[in-house]
Specification:
Chain lengths: ~350, ~350
């Protein structure tokens, strides 16, 4: 088992990465605060891992809530199911919530923990690659609104993250690929060497070689932890983690939540960002091509869906959290491993890049 | 105009108290952060003060949301109306929410501000006595759940509180009395002299004498600000502000939100707390009688509703936020102006005090 630490002063916490971690009580049970536990999971993950996790936490008399599976259920109304369970079972402030599942379960459970009785503890047990390398680390929690992704939420850090690599054995191929989009993102924004390693190892990752997956997860978490430690509340460089996300969120919202996986939308969004960077003269054509090539090898989409025109994409992007005083902030590339935040990109350039990448096509 | 400051380091903020404050742009407009404003109010307050407030904030192109009036609408579902307005109008992170109304509007607006895009600024303009002396100060925000009051929420401090005493001219008598319950509370928990002053001045307060009301509001806010500054997150003495509230919340939940005003329920709850304190030998019979007498003179209820038996009250209290590890924490009195937190009160004593105060009667 490897242990990384997200350094956030009094709110620092460990990330445990290893095989078979759900077969043993520690480190999970040792991080429970209080006397009771509520496990939040979904109907896909519950039959696979819920009994295992509740067995680990038996001394806390665990109770479970099983949510429907899918981004379309990441709503304020569905969040209420968690509160119904907490209050129905009379679970008080000294309860720890445990998120067992992918990004949706993790974001909703963390948000419920942030606002239940004005804040209780929670633990992340991510079971998808995307959640393991990205959403379970860093304390961003929340739900969607019909008009925008993650528009309602809070910063709330978990007490620990337990990543059992064995859970990837039950992950559908499509979801494995979606997770790889966020893995590739770290290479693009701040880790040139890792990007090169991914170009050499993407096939082994798709074949689920445990050692290769373990390395990619650890390296991704290291990158995420470093960025979050430097800028927890996203006042500056944490925004770099949003490469491809402004375009991606527009795709997810525009196509209807649950129609594209988050990682798929981010992949297409990163291609638009690379293409826009190339058009603005910051990224060489060869490097821009490497971005699309690696994503394609990971079986990820590299085109904006034809149904969404550039105008509709821009309209959807205008409500993104990266907008300030009406000015769109975009993450762009100056090279592989070198991202920048720009608020001065001409609308015409964005439209051209979107058109080139398939929007309105 | 008087100015008090809630001392919370970087999150310190002023409370302005005076007559005619809604007739002038400052101090209100100077505290807006960002470029836009959303005013949240309700259908009772909107016809009285909304035009006035939007006129003060004209340079921020204010938009308004008008919520239905009443505690029964303080729900997660109704909160969504605020997000619908924010996103429908494409208001981004650099928006300030303004709460114009009583405690329900203030709690909901503050909570919406706490979780919109993971946190935006807000300003309190309380228009009921209860909101002016209590709920608008201190950063507790949230909504109710059918099984418990204020169970979903966050700590989120406003940028300022603007108390225009003139707004009390339109307040129904019943609501004025409800506000007096919280005013009297400050005397009971930490300000013996103020309690004596209230015994001498309660009739002038009910007659809405502006000077007398102004003094009571200022003194109440001073007490609240001091407690909040010492213990923002309620790790210790802030809990004293909950005198009567554990019983009161049970009454509100048990009778159905909106049936009793919050201040009315707190008044009855304070009588139970005083009676329980007397039975435990901490409060003299004469002082216990003074509590009930002053509340009655303020036209407040001093009996638990007959429909709620002691067992049902205890069941409702068991989900209160003051419960930890299944142990009920109660605020009790050792004298007028001297409150304590106790977790060791025998259930039988609570039942007797509840029975004596009308529950099950």
């Amino acid at each position: 088992m490897k242990t990384l630490v997200v350094e956030l002063g009094a709110r620092s916490y460990p990330i445990y990465i290893g095989a078979g971690l759900l077969e043993q009580d520690e480190p999970l049970a040792g991080h429970v605060a209080g006397r009771r536990v509520l496990v939040v999971t979904n109907e896909t993950v519950a039959p696979l891992y819920l009994d295992k996790v509740t067995a680990r936490l038996e001394r806390f008399a665990p109770v479970a809530v099983v949510l429907p599976d899918g981004e379309q259920y990441k709503t304020l109304a569905d969040l209420n199911r968690i509160f119904d369970a907490l209050l129905g079972q009379r679970l008080d402030r000294r309860t720890t919530l445990v998120a067992l599942g992918g990004g949706v379960v993790g974001d909703m459970t963390g948000f419920a923990a942030a606002i239940y009785q004005r804040g209780v503890s929670f633990i992340q047990i991510p079971t998808t690659l995307l959640a393991q390398v990205d959403s379970s680390v860093g304390g961003k929690t929340g739900v969607n609104h019909p008009l925008g992704k993650n528009m309602i939420g809070a910063f709330h850090q978990p007490r620990c993250v337990v990543i059992d690599i064995d859970t990837l054995n039950t992950l559908p191929d499509k979801e494995l690929s979606a997770g790889l989009a966020e893995v590739i993102k770290y290479g693009l924004i701040r880790d040139t060497e890792f990007f090169g390693w991914l170009e050499s190892n993407v096939d082994r990752l798709l074949a689920r070689d445990p050692e290769t997956l373990g390395f990619a997860i650890e390296r991704s978490c290291r990158n995420k932890a470093a960025v979050v430690a430097a800028d927890e509340m996203e006042r500056g460089q944490r925004a770099l983690l949003n490469l491809g996300h402004t375009f991606g969120h527009a795709i997810e919202t525009g196509m209807g939540y649950g129609s594209w996986l988050h990682g798929e939308a981010v992949a297409a969004g990163m291609v638009v960002a690379a293409e826009l960077s190339r058009r603005l003269g910051w990224l060489g054509a060869k490097d821009a091509a490497r971005v699309g090539a690696l994503l394609r090898r990971a079986h990820l989409p590299t085109q904006v869906p034809a149904g969404l025109g550039a105008d509709r994409m821009l309209e959807l992007m205008s409500v993104d959290k990266k907008v300030e005083d009406g000015q769109l902030r975009l993450i762009l590339l100056k090279g592989i491993g070198d991202a920048v935040i720009r608020s001065d990109v001409p609308r015409a350039a964005i439209v051209e890049a979107l058109d080139f990448c398939g929007a309105g096509g």
